[in-house]
Write a structure and sequence with these properties.
single chain; 357 residues; alpha/beta; Aspartate Aminotransferase, domain 2; Aspartate Aminotransferase, domain 1; 7-stranded mixed beta sheet; 37% helix; binds pyridoxal-5'-phosphate
């Protein structure tokens, strides 16, 4: 048996949506983008959604719209994908790393106060692996210091915190549609969501040469737009997101049942609707297990083996993050996607049981 780590769903509706764009001759800033933005905003319970070219673009544009610049500080976890933090660094700001909670793998709110300084201009909470960050204490602390909160929901489409959709609680939420994500646009793509009109307008302009009118650029912008073909695919994928989320949660529940006594399985906080972008276990001989699974046709991943504060380009120097530093050597992401069959889940669990015995 060969089991893929993730799989992109394609059906005739998606093929036909792409064909319609090809036949229409309209490839950017058309009806698909407008509709996708409206539908995605509705899904997230936000006023606005702005389609962009990737999750990284979404974070860069967010940092630009918040005015992040040289010598500002941006608080972010280190146990995440580099793009949570690199746009701030790219703009000359300093990422200030906060450790993660060992249960949820998301930013530890009890360590936030100590990380805040007079230069803190944003807090980025990452809903890592599909588990929402503990937003209430994060928002309380941020509000008391008047610091905007960005939700990096690139791994958490359809996630919920106390019944609220990921992306809708902070000042801005960002999503990625990279092909392995919980929904995709069959390539790179991303979305920024917000209910703040001013920020929505700024981001919308910044992604399109800083303009509202064709030949007048009011602000310095870039081209980080989402094209019509990916927007059309995204609209079709969004229709499936609720059923795919249910299936991911069912796969996770089955993994939990079969593996609870074998390895450290992930936990979901009582207030969390975990959407299992990744199903991440922990074990001492992680590399040995990964090799055994590979030898048995099972693809796995490590998210992430090098934390952001240890990435050479981030030039962070000595930073003490004991939870992050312990996790990175023990974590292993198992195959997880909604097309997985019960037999496949069983096979993965069996091979892990075999290896442990
Ligand atoms: C947590 C997180 N932030 C940001 C990104 C960046 O998204 P993209 O790959 O679409 O640029 C990703 C996805 O890879 C991610 O997982």
């Amino acid at each position: 048996m060969h089991i893929n780590f993730s799989e992109m769903y394609v059906d005739d509706d998606i093929r036909s949506a792409v064909a319609q764009v090809l036949d229409s001759g309209r490839f950017i800033k058309g009806n698909n983008l407008r509709q996708f933005e409206q539908e995605f905003a509705e899904f997230c319970n936000t006023e606005y959604a702005i389609g962009v070219s990737s999750g990284t673009s979404a974070i860069l544009l967010t940092m630009m719209a918040l005015g992040i610049k040289k010598d500002d500080e941006v608080i972010v976890p280190s146990h995440t994908f580099i793009a949570s933090a690199s746009p701030a660094k790219f703009l000359g700001a300093t990422p200030v790393y906060v450790d993660v909670d060992p249960e949820t793998y998301t930013i530890d709110p009890t360590q936030l106060e100590d990380a805040i300084s007079a230069n803190t201009k944003a807090i980025i909470a990452v809903h890592l692996y599909g588990h929402p960050a503990d937003m209430d204490p994060i928002m309380d602390i941020a509000t008391s210091h008047n610091i905007p909160v960005v939700e990096d929901a690139c791994q958490a489409h359809a996630g919920e915190y106390k019944g609220k959709r990921t992306g809708s609680m902070g000042d801005i939420g960002v999503f990625s549609f990279f092909p392995s994500k919980n929904m995709t646009v069959a390539g790179d793509g991303g979305m920024v969501v917000t209910s703040n009109e001013e920020l929505a307008e700024k981001i919308s302009m910044l992604r399109d040469h800083g303009r509202k009118e064709k030949y007048v650029s009011d602000m310095l912008g870039l081209n980080l737009r989402l094209s019509e073909i990916p927007a059309a695919v995204g609209r079709e994928q969004l229709k499936h997101l609720p059923e795919w989320t249910d299936r991911r949660r069912a796969v996770a529940a089955e993994y939990d049942r079969l593996l609870a006594d074998v390895v450290d399985t992930p936990t979901a906080a009582a207030w969390a609707k975990h959407v299992y972008h990744l199903y991440v276990i922990q074990t001492d001989d992680r590399d040995g297990l990964a090799q055994y699974l590979k030898d048995n046709g099972i693809s796995t991943g490590i998210h992430y083996p090098v934390p952001v504060h240890k990435q050479p380009c981030m030039e962070a120097g000595d930073v003490e993050l004991p939870v992050t530093d312990t996790l990175v050597d023990r974590i292993l992401s198992l195959p997880m996607h909604p097309q997985m069959t019960d037999e496949q889940v069983q096979y993965v669990a069996e091979k892990i049981q075999e290896w442990v015995q």
